[in-house]
Each structure stands twice: as structure tokens, then as C-alpha cells.
Write a structure and sequence with these properties.
Layout: E1 4-6, E2 12-15, H1 17-27, H2 31-35, E3 39-44, H3 49-61, E4 65-68, H4 80-91, E5 97-102, H5 106-112, E6 120-122, H6 126-134, E7 140-144, H7 150-161, H8 169-175
Parallel strand pairs: 3-4, 3-5, 5-7, 6-7
Antiparallel strand pairs: 1-2
Helix pairs in contact: 3-7, 4-5, 6-7
This protein binds ribulose-5-phosphate (5RP).
The site of ribulose-5-phosphate has 9 residues, from helix 5.
InterPro entries: RpiB, RpiB_LacA_LacB, RpiB_LacA_LacB_sf
GO molecular function: ribose-5-phosphate isomerase activity
Protein name: Ribose 5-phosphate isomerase B
């Protein structure tokens, strides 16, 4: 079966089955570009405000939807107030992933991991970040703003969002993490 193409004056241009195949391929939705647009919750204390802004600008430029639960100021705040909402959004399934930022990454990480369905990973290199996804199926990335550079933090975010869980033996272990 072929396809007829006409220009604006109605002159027949093509009647070609190869063109049909080409047009159908072009019209087929690209599943990769659809799944790449993720919903991400982000939260930070005063130590992470600049990093949050940089990371959010990057994520939005990539087409992701970012919900900001962090402070937007450098004035001293308490990180649990800004991390629990991120973890709750992940736990409720309202977002695909969470990103949390404080000075060392530890307080934010401890807070997020109080939520049953959250597996938050404190990461400081892209290799550890990749393992957090591949082996631990982490759904929250905790970034230590005072111990990583902004380029390193961005590299970790990219790695986190683009690395898949390997499953297999790691799934069995991840399923044993929950204690209730
Ligand atoms: O890393 C953090 C928690 O794990 C905090 O960002 C850090 O404790 C804040 O410290 P300060 O009040 O001295 O700015």
C-alpha cells in the first residue's frame, strides 16, 4: 500500500510504499523521550539552596517536572522540615524520585529513610550514585553540598536519573530491607 502526497496546489508529489514506512516510523511516539520526563521532588536546608537552584534549573531544562519543598533562603533552618515532604511525596508515589540536599547529606538522608517506602542513598561520587540505583534501587538521592562541588552534584543527579535497577539478587536483598 502506498501513500499519496500533494503540495498546496494539489499536484501529486509521491506515491511510494517506502515513503509510507518512513512516515509511519516518524509518526510513531518515541517511548524514550516520554519516559525521560520525570516528576522529581527536591528539598534542601540552608546549606543546599544554591545547589538546589542549579539542579532545578538543569532538570527543568531537560523537561522534568520539579516540585520544590526546600527553603529558598540561606537563613538557618531545620532540614527535617524540608526533607519529610520530599520523602512523603516519594512514598505516596506522587513523584518518580526525590533529591535532598543538606551540608553533609547525612541528616537529610536519615530523615528520608524514616519513610517506609523510601530508599535514600547518601552519595558523593558518580560511581556510588550508579551503585545506589543498580544495587539498591534508591528512590531518593541525598547530596552533601558542603563536600561536593556543584558540577559533581549535577553529575550525580544525571547518573541517578539515567541508571536502572539491576534486579535479580539485588531485588531479593532490597526486599529484605523493610522491617515491618
Ligand atoms: O548537614 C546538615 C545535616 O546533616 C546540615 O546542613 C548542617 O548540620 C547545618 O549546620 P549549620 O547549622 O552549622 O549550618
Amino acid at each position: 500500500m502506498g501513500i499519496l502526497l500533494y503540495n498546496s496546489t494539489g499536484i501529486k508529489l509521491f506515491n511510494n510504499r517506502f515513503l509510507t514506512i518512513f512516515v509511519l516510523i516518524k509518526l510513531k511516539p518515541n517511548p524514550t523521550s516520554q519516559t525521560l520526563h520525570m516528576k522529581i521532588a527536591i528539598g534542601n536546608d540552608h546549606a543546599g539552596t544554591d545547589y538546589k537552584n542549579t539542579i532545578t534549573a538543569y532538570l527543568e531544562s531537560e523537561g522534568h517536572k520539579v516540585t520544590n519543598y526546600g527553603t529558598d533562603s540561606d537563613e538557618s533552618v531545620d532540614y527535617p522540615d524540608f526533607v519529610h515532604p520530599v520523602a512523603a511525596a516519594v512514598e505516596a508515589g506522587n513523584v518518580d524520585y526525590g533529591i535532598i540536599i543538606c551540608g553533609s547529606g547525612n541528616g537529610a538522608n536519615m530523615t528520608a529513610n524514616k519513610h517506609q517506602k523510601v530508599r535514600s542513598a547518601l552519595c558523593w561520587t558518580k560511581e556510588i550514585t550508579a551503585l545506589a540505583r543498580e544495587h539498591n534501587d534508591a528512590n531518593v538521592l541525598s547530596i552533601p553540598a558542603r563536600f561536593t562541588s556543584e558540577p559533581q552534584a549535577l553529575e550525580m543527579v544525571k547518573t541517578f536519573l539515567n541508571t536502572d535497577f539491576e534486579g535479580g539478587r539485588h531485588l531479593r536483598r532490597v526486599e529484605k530491607i523493610a522491617c515491618s
